[in-house]
Amino acid sequence: MITKTVGPKYVSIFKSWVPTMVAWGSTGTVALIHFTDWRVILDYVPYINGKFKKDD
């Protein structure tokens, strides 16, 4: 259905850009975690969340 709407040329161009977009997205995510308060973000990761329990 998408091929009929957009065209096969643009679908093939998009498929060739997918690895690049994944790489930039991963790099951006790692940079976001690195430059922000990493603990706030990593508290939502189940395995890592248990390692940093606060003793209140």
Automatic annotation (TrEMBL):
GO biological process entries: mitochondrial electron transport, ubiquinol to cytochrome c
Q: Which InterPro entries match?
A: Single_a-helix_sf, UQCR
The entry's cellular-component GO terms read:
mitochondrial inner membrane
Reading the lineage from the top rank, the first entry is Eukaryota
Its recorded name reads Ubiquinol-cytochrome c reductase, complex III subunit XI
Which species does the entry assign this protein to? Scleropages formosus
Q: What is the lineage of its organism?
A: Eukaryota, Metazoa, Chordata, Craniata, Vertebrata
